[in-house]
Design brief:
Blueprint: H1 2-10, E1 15-22, H2 44-54, E2 58-64, E3 67-69, H3 70-75, E4 90-91, E5 94-96, H4 102-118, E6 123-126, H5 147-157, H6 170-197, E7 202-205, E8 213-218, H7 232-241, E9 248-254, H8 268-281, E10 287-288, H9 302-315
Parallel strand pairs: 1-2, 2-6, 6-7, 7-8, 8-9, 9-10
Antiparallel strand pairs: 3-5, 4-5
Length: 337
């Protein structure tokens, strides 16, 4: 932890986001169905928070409730995603959960409560929030047909789940609405819990509903068609910055060229473009690697990232309070597709 903090200071960082729980608990959880990594002997979360605060950094606790350890699946299979033919998605021991299952709807709140009750975090972030139909290798499994989804969709709309994902099918259009409504209902419950315990704790995820910090990503993927859209950071920042007065935007510049190739970084030129666009469009800086800097194999763009972060630290007063002088609005639709 001391080495990590030293490297973060070298990057002029003032906020650290690190795993707290969900797939794996980074602290000695007392919850039966919160998997703690074997061999973990200390409270890593507490040490990270304490040392971040001691060095003038805020700490955001990262959660991921989209998946859980296969041990929990064996104990509570009804909490998990099911494909149309009734199969779970087990990705090397990590199994997909479902937004409408007990694990996400109820047990996730217990995990959040446990962290907020025991640790002085400054914010909480939820990765892969909502309905997740893809695995880490890019395989698509379709909508969830678990008993919870079937019963809840029938209860809300009086319909069985759609047979196919046909945008011309009125049942499928109802299903897209169902996804949107149930996702926002879960965010309502999270917001109520968090703000009732600590009103100063910021909530962040990739949805705009009931959050303080909207997270977006500038990323790449090996199979994504060309030409590459080079203005993702500008678009991501401005779509939030120019829309809400009560929300911050944090556009995460993903270092990895793809999720499966997570230790190979994008070119320094692409990372420069993303970070400068974020600043020029009115947000702060957000840079992500998988793991820690120590032993990270591809460090080719690190010096540029440090330079840009240092520039922002030295000139922060000039950024983040921009007002558009344009007299023409560009509308970016949201909501169910």
């Amino acid at each position: 932890m001391d080495r990590l903090i030293g490297e973060l200071k070298d990057f002029s960082v003032n906020v650290l986001m690190m795993n707290a729980g969900g797939i794996v608990a980074f602290y000695p959880t007392q919850l039966e169905y919160h998997y703690r990594a074997e061999g973990q002997t200390k409270d890593l979360l507490k040490e990270a928070i304490d040392k971040a605060h001691a060095n003038g950094m805020k700490f955001i606790a990262r959660f991921d409730f989209s998946k859980a350890h296969e041990r929990i699946f064996r104990q509570r299979p009804e909490w998990f995603y099911r494909s149309k033919d009734g199969r779970e998605v087990n990705y090397f021991g990590i199994v997909h959960t479902c937004l409408n299952g007990y694990y996400q709807r109820e047990y996730s709140l217990q995990m959040i409560d446990e962290v907020l009750s025991n640790y002085e975090v400054d914010g909480i972030f939820f990765n892969m929030f909502g309905y997740q139909n893809w695995d880490y290798s890019g395989n698509y499994y379709g909508i969830c047909y678990c008993g919870n989804c079937q019963s809840r969709f029938m209860e809300m709309y009086g319909l069985a789940l759609p047979e196919s994902e046909d945008p011309d099918d009125p049942v499928f259009r109802k299903y897209k609405e169902f996804q949107d409504v149930t996702t926002k209902q879960m965010l309502d419950r999270i917001h109520e819990l968090v703000k009732s315990k600590r009103s100063d704790v910021a909530i962040s995820t990739y949805n705009e509903h009931k959050v303080d910090i909207v997270r977006k990503e500038s990323n790449t993927a090996i199979m994504r068609p060309h030409p590459v859209w080079q203005y993702s950071a500008s678009e991501n920042v401005k779509s939030v910055e120019d829309t809400w007065d009560d929300k911050l935007i944090s556009n995460c510049c993903i270092n990895a060229i793809d999720l499966f190739y997570r230790f190979t970084g994008v070119s320094r030129h692409e990372m420069n473009l993303r970070l400068y666009e974020a600043l020029a469009s009115g947000s702060g800086l957000d840079f992500c690697i998988i793991g820690v800097f120590d032993g990270y194999p591809d460090r080719a763009n690190f010096d540029d990232v440090k330079r840009i972060f240092r520039y922002h630290a030295e000139h922060e007063s000039y950024y983040g309070q921009f007002r558009s002088m344009a007299d023409l609005a560009v509308i970016k639709p949201g909501g169910p597709a």
